[in-house]
Amino acid sequence: MNGFSSGVGFEYRRSDRAEGFNWHFVEMPYGCIRFHRAHFLDVFVKNLPESVAHFGKRLASYNQVRDGIQLEFSDGTSAICDLLVGCDGIKSTVRKQMLNSTGRIELEEHIEPRWSGSIAYRGLIPVAKLPEGQHRALQYPVMYCGKDKHVVVYSISKGTVVNVVAFASDSDKENTCYGDEWVTSCSKEEMQECFAGWEPEVSVLLDRIESPTKWGIHHLAPLPLYVTGRVALLGDAAHAMTPHLGSGAGQAIEDAYILAKVLGAATLNTLDAALEAYETTRLPMANHVLRASAVAGKMFEFNNELGERYQVLGPAIGAQWNYLDETTPEGESMRAVERMREALNKRKLSDSSTLSSRNGLLRNGHERRALLAIMLLLASLAAVFTVGHAIDVVPNVTVSGPTRPPTLTPFAYAFPNCKSGPLKDNAVCDRSKDPVTRAEALIQLWTVPELIANSVHQAPGVSRLGIPPYQWWSEASHGISWTGPGVIFAPDGDFSYATSFPSPINLGASFDDPLVFQVGTVISTEGRAFNSAQRAGLDYFAPNINPWRDPRWGRGQETPGESALHSANYVYQLVNGFQGGIDPSPYIKVIATCKHYAAYDLDQVGDVIQRNFSAEVTTQEFAEYYLPPFQTCVRDAKVKSVMCAYNAVNGVPACSDPYILQTVLRDYYGFPDDGYVVSDCDAVQSIYENHKFVNSYQAAAAVALNAGTDLNCGSIYGLFLQQALDQNLTATANIQKALVRQYASLVRLGYFDPPELQPYRQFTFADVGTPAAEKMAYDVAVEGMVLLKNDGTLPLKKSLKKMALIGPWAQATEQMQGNYYGTAPFLISPQMGAVTAGFNVTFVEGTGIQDGDTSSFSDALEAAAQADVIVFAGGIDNDVEAEGLDRTDISWPGAQLQLIQKLASVGKPFVVVQFGAGQVDDSWLLKSKDVNAILWAGYPGQSGGTAVADVLTGKVAPAGRLPLMQYPADYVNQVSMLDMNLRPNKTSGNPGRTYQWYTGKPVIDYGFGLHYTTFSLQWQGLPALAYDIQALVAKAHSAAHLDLGSFDTFGVTVRNIGHVTSDFVSLLFVKTTAGPAPHPNKVLIGYSRVHSVNPGAAAIARIGVKLGDIARVDHNGNAWVYPGLYTLSLDVPERLTHSFVLVGHAAQLSDFPAPPASWTVGADKQKHSASKPAAIWDEHTHDEQQVLRELR
């Protein structure tokens, strides 16, 4: 589209002060379409079919007569039409006459527009007039927020012009009369005075506006009707709204789309039914958006009940666009036509007069013509900015399916041609050479501008060399996702969906490593199939492997849980599945990206957000807890991409820290030059803007590149690397090295090689969403279910037929997917699952997730009283926990616990199904005898409703284990989320974190999970009583690394002595007082899941333990095997134990790189003696023999 600009979200800054700061970012995977009025008109004029349009005809009045509607124009002429569509704007003549003609007094308040109490200063700035010709708004829209004021800035006209709208509000004047012309010119001084004291970034913008205008912002009260007779209202005539959601024009376009659809199915005889269907469909949604826009404006100016509570305000702002998730124009049009059909069928009209496109008003089904004609009338709306669903009337825009927001034309994915053209004789096409050499041969041909242009995630390629554009940013946390810009789902048909697995936290709860590998294999297969159709790249920004340190973190759902060992095993299997093996040859399947490196597990605490937070960690805990998953990912699984995090570590932003990116990642872990480091998106920008680590964008780009950030997800490299070169802040060789790493990884993917030689290039849509993949998604959902309480009520008896299904999760569909999801082939809600299972279901929501509404309690209790069994489906969702949204409260939100307590008193069998990743305090539920069972379901994906129903009925048995501890609600008052220390500290009041270090009593312990049957456990042969450290280390030298050497494999006989076939997860822990104090409560060192153990049968769980699993980490980050007494414990709570001793001298397994002096964690914390610890148990210690005698 000519003049088109787009973005993926809104950045929010607090700006009514001398130094502003970013406090939230609202991602908009649907995109923000921004274009000038003239470009908007050009598109529709070009696509308008041949027809007659009359201009300059101002309507004075109309009369509904027998033959139609008589129109009287202000020039004295008249005309008759079959249908009048009033899209004549906020001061609509049609609306005034329509509402007055009803004679209804209550409609008088809807006739005239109302002043919102806000004024807006508006102006355009050519980019060339901006400081140094750049601005952050060229990347995405920016909202500068202050008390009672806000400024929105975004680019239009292909990024050549910046539009500025500065709002000032007085809530006391809302709905009063505006005493001036609606639009006037004003002086620059008036505008600047209004925003005096705001940060310089805003002042500079306002100063660049040459001729500002001043607008009184008006809107309508929500109308109760859009149609009378054959007259309909559309666009601003029906629902003029404030511009705060950028959705006014979008709503008008959707009006036109729905109206065209029903008119295309109507005859003159059925026109009234068509208009009624239009009104019934559009009025509720448009009024919802109208109200949401008003609410959003108050939020931007901290003028609603959320005030300045950034942590909840940001997500609440994002939620104002949630309507985009709930519906699509295509879906609404189908509903409108169906409503029309139902109305006509009630009249018992014949089929020929009901829905005839052949004989209808719009012959030959030309709804498109009707739509374009209506759109021409709408041109006066002149959308400068619109957010919403795209409509299929413009080339280059596609319409989505029901769960896929629309996007622009697919990115032009292609492959270089090594058979002919500029590259055919270059070494990059020589398959006999190694990937780095091939990439070097290519990159040495590039000019500096070409290098810089391709240093960002949306790389334009080098057309003169036949290098096509490439989008590095795609997402696939638990299935191919449209969250990033790299994956393009089709609106329908092939490639309109992909398998949507349960969230990673559910996969973690399964403790099934082979299943993790299988999931990774399916995701990569579907990713390759999308790539074959030019709908996805080959690089995915997944998985998230930050251990879940604090229960408040909103992104824990993206991880397998709180155990570093479990996270390490998870990433090994997932990367193996993604990449098609461990460092496979000749080709990698798709590239995984291990994120977020490192010590990232916080999004917002007050004014502290992930972009300005410095994680203060000791070297000991850095090496012991925060880094092991990354070590496994890089060193062992051979991943080809690592994402550096937003946060700083001990004062140094992660993406600018050569210690983290070079010393640890490349030198210590061995990350090769056919792998690249990518910044988290806009993390390079944050080095300057948020962390204030450097004093310019140029310096931020240079320090990141010099440290080892090869690819900038964002635009800072592209905008500022040339200036950084000019200022001698970096060197061209550094840019070349970064691009060599990127393109060497593409060589590994077969990017330059003949497709016929590559099996992965042969995948098609037939490999997407296969029956096997659907079965696997269901299996993950089932295996991840955790039974937290059961008094024998579950599985439900077959005699229980009438179910009262109550709660805010009962009808969940897209909620089941958590975050970072794509379009699923289907989504089965808990209600649908229960109905399919044969229950007679009565549904009552009862209350929302967190709104505190109790008005429907009586309905819920009435339904419960009439039922055989009560199932409450509740918990938390992405309105409570999400990226950018950490919790401040870990109890049940809203009025849910209150409703649970009332339902428990009904006296019927009562089951609570708890959804969401983060745990909520279940203390009351566990203690209450009236709550019979609790089932944790997490985010169970596309088949979640079926999986829940099958577990409740006993079709399958739950055997998952909780992959994180459930803390008491008061935990949030005991330790700040900013405190990164795991170990308890009496001085600070930190009670310790995770099951390893928490000194309080957990509500539910890590690894807990009940079954429908009973298992007995027995060691398969008595484990050894003593191990010689030196012998173990000597044997470990045959492994790739000492910590990977085998310690022992423990066999456990798992016997089902109950009556239900079930899986069983064996969790093996160790505890010891050997090594540096303090000592952990226990440490997970291995696990194994056995499947489908029948009643009376037994299975052998074999748990392999590596030498590194029993090691302790010293204050310098080095892993040691210490002599001493160790005790194994199996299951939670422990049911099988065994003690042994390690004898000999302590042995060092690793030599962790010493951190730089620049780290802000003080010398007292960082510097400790590196001397070898003395032997605690050696061959000359008499106590050893005594301990052995006691063990025997």
Automatic annotation (TrEMBL):
Stretches assigned to the Fibronectin type III-like domain = 1064-1134
Keyword Phosphoprotein listed: no
Q: What is this protein called?
A: xylan 1,4-beta-xylosidase
Query: Which InterPro entries does the record cross-reference, listed alphabetically?
Result: BXL, FAD-bd, FAD/NAD-bd_sf, Fn3-like, GH, Glyco_hydro_3_C, Glyco_hydro_3_C_sf, Glyco_hydro_3_N
Asked whether the UniProt record includes Membrane among its keywords, one would answer no
The organism's place on the tree of life at top rank: Eukaryota
Q: Which reaction does it catalyse?
A: Hydrolysis of (1->4)-beta-D-xylans, to remove successive D-xylose residues from the non-reducing termini
Stored SMART domains: Fn3_like
